[in-house]
Design a protein that fits this description.
This protein is of the alpha/beta class. It has a single domain, classed as 3-Layer(aba) Sandwich (Beta-carbonic Anhydrase, Chain A), CATH 3.40.1050. Helices cover 38% and strands 16% of the residues. It contains six helices and five strands. The protein has helices at residues 3-17, 44-48, 65-77, 99-110, 112-117, 131-144; strands at residues 32-37, 55-60, 84-89, 154-159, 166-168. Strands 2-1-3-4-5 form a five-stranded mixed beta sheet, covered by helices on one side. β1 (32-37), α2 (44-48) and β2 form a beta-alpha-beta unit. It catalyses: hydrogencarbonate + H(+) = CO2 + H2O. Keywords: Lyase, Metal-binding, Zinc. Its EC number is 4.2.1.1. Reversible hydration of carbon dioxide. It is an enzyme of class 4 (lyase).
Amino acid sequence: MSEIQKNLVDKNTEYSAAFTKGHLALPPAKKYLVLTCMDARIDPAAAYGIDLGDAHVVRNAGANAKDALRSIVISQQLLGTNEIILVKHTGCGMLTFDDDVATGLVEKNLGAEAKEALGAFGGDFKTFPQLEDAVRDDVKLLKETPLINDEVPITGWVYEVETGKVRQVV
């Protein structure tokens, strides 16, 4: 067992010994979904005030709305959420490279066969050169898709990893 796996087991043993939230309902109590980045510097529960059972939190590279659509549809249609908060962040890795760089790294590190396998998602890493524009673009995508009801409030935010503060963009 790796040190990381051992840590998971040890910390889970501590957590489960004091766990008292097994009674929470499957649908989130406050009926909203947060889409945020997978960046390890973000603690969505602490930074965004989310208690266990309150909301769905979907995380992916860059808080990408298109990548999250499947989860958003499930959250809304099957589990009753009715608001979306999208939060990207400063210092995001998705600002630091483009598809050509990522494709080149995959080929260099994993070979030509792996490069070809990028076709599974079209080789589109969904990078973005400008943070606020990316927030606006993803909110627009969510507001325009027929997969989300027009009455669902959708807002876009930036979390500042340097300060821990959020600011609304749209």
